[in-house]
């Protein structure tokens, strides 16, 4: 009996999940309750209007949420999509937004990055939100046709130049209500360009929600 108990504890030690942020033991996704609470207690909702579009965001892109996004994007921590989707859902709830008859469109990544990462993290987030709110998700209405360098490494003028011609929007957005979602808005260059294309194609309405934003984006 003692031997069985020993091996049981040994297996628990070997296979238990450790919190990605603080290394504490956790039983759900790889973030402990304390770190989860910290992430959501740091939410500071923001609503603004730029280039004629209402934009909402949940948190400042720093500390724990920054690490979560990087892990989701670059370290195959796909289960962390739940954190981002919950931040966006709480933002929707906070502003009492109604997206009935809307279509969710995640910001796309280029096929070269898709081959490398094997998934677009924002598509995972979009699927979770669509399921929760019973909203249709369409991942093919916006395509990234130009493989740009990571924009955070570029100056604002360089970002504008890099993003020019980077996206294509389907004619199918005409007369549609579009909810565009992204993980972070820094300068707003990416969503501004996509918004321009969506409006040119005759969408009925467009709302943007990002899980996070830079401190400078207000």
Protein described:
The protein has 218 residues and is of the alpha/beta class. It has one domain: Rossmann fold (3-Layer(aba) Sandwich), CATH 3.40.50.2020. Helix content is 41%, strand content 22%. The protein contains eight helices and ten strands. The strands form three sheets. Strands 3-4-10-9-5-6 form a six-stranded mixed β-sheet, sandwiched between helices. Strands 1-2 form a two-stranded antiparallel sheet. The protein has a two-stranded antiparallel sheet with strand order 7-8. The model is unreliable at 8-12 (pLDDT under 50).
Q: Portion of residues in helices?
A: 40-55%
Q: How many β-strand stretches?
A: 10
| Poorly predicted ranges | 8-12
The SS-based structural class is alpha/beta
Main β sheet profile: 6 strands, mixed
CATH topology: Rossmann fold
Strands of the widest sheet, in order across it, are: 3-4-10-9-5-6
**Shape estimate:** globular
Order of helices and strands: HEEHEEHHEHHEEHEEHE
Distance between the termini: 62 Å
Give the C-level CATH assignment: Alpha Beta
Tally the helices. Answer: 8
- What is the gyration radius calculated from CA atoms? 19 Å
Strand content: 15-25%
Average residue pLDDT: 89
CATH architecture: 3-Layer(aba) Sandwich
How many discrete structural domains? 1
């Amino acid at each position: 009996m003692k031997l069985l108990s020993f091996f049981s504890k040994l297996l628990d030690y070997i296979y238990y999940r450790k919190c990605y942020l603080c290394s504490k033991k956790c039983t759900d996704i790889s973030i402990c309750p304390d770190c989860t609470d910290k992430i959501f207690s740091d939410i500071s909702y923001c609503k603004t209007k730029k280039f004629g579009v209402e934009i909402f965001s949940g948190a400042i892109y720093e500390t724990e949420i920054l690490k979560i996004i990087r892990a989701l994007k670059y370290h195959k921590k796909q289960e962390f999509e739940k954190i981002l989707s919950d931040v966006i859902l709480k933002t929707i709830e906070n502003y009492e937004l109604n997206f009935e008859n809307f279509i969710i469109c995640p910001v796309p990544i280029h096929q070269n990055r898709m081959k490398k990462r094997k998934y677009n993290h924002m598509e995972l987030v979009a699927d979770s939100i669509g399921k929760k709110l019973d909203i249709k998700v369409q991942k093919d209405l916006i395509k990234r046709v130009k493989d740009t360098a990571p924009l955070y490494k570029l100056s604002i003028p360089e970002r504008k130049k890099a993003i020019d011609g980077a996206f294509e929007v389907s004619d199918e957005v005409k007369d549609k209500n579009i909810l565009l979602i992204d993980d972070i808005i820094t300068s707003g260059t990416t969503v501004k360009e996509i918004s321009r294309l969506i409006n040119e194609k005759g969408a009925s309405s467009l709302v943007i929600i990002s899980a996070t934003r830079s401190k400078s984006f207000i």
